[in-house]
Amino acid sequence: MMWTLFFIQLGVALIFLVLGWLILFKKAYGLISNFHSRPDEEKKQLIQNGYPKNTGKMLMMTGLGMLILPPLLFTGFAYALEVQIVFMLVILLGGFIYLSKYEVAAKRKKSYIISSSIFIITIGFVGVLTYIGYQDFQLVQKADTFEVTGVYGDEWRYEDVKRVELLKEMPKVEVRKNGFGMPTMSKGHFIVKGYGSSLLYIHKGKAPYLYVEVGDDQLFINAESKTDTQKWFEQLVQKTELNN
């Protein structure tokens, strides 16, 4: 999985580098969005202002940065992927704001407004998703049901529980179907080796892991504290035994 991410990011970096090089050194200005559809007079002004040249530089800078950052994936740094994504977004979206200064005078203000709005909306959206992804969850046990709180949470009846186990190690997670796969946490629907489609609510590297088979669902959940996970297990076993 790590090597797959590495080669994907390497490929994206090379695309940016090639595009930037073609624009900057080969004057392939047709690669710039909407450049060819502009009136000839605007094209001349843009070239005089340095718009194509600086577009090529911005793309090459993005590509070079993305070539330098992928090795972080192999350092054990938990937020390597997030750093690379933020870098790409800031350089690209911030670059488009910067490029507005090289626009033709009549369209410069509009370009600043549009590019700045896109920057704010995109960064805000990514920020909200990251916040939701890192929100913690709890296993709340009630009289007849237990609930997992937070995004992708749900509620199940004790009488539907078929199996409860405390695992020393988390089985291999093969594919994410629909969920958050953060560096330190996974929440949502995943394919787990030997178990198939499962709901995960796990803090990575925080053994043990509670496995619950209930109804048609399979759950893997743990707390940041080993003591809390053990407590959830004991309470769940007690509740299910009382209802058998």
TrEMBL record:
Transmembrane intervals: 6-25, 58-77, 83-100, 112-134
Keywords, ordered alphabetically: Membrane, Transmembrane, Transmembrane helix
The protein's name: Membrane protein SirB2
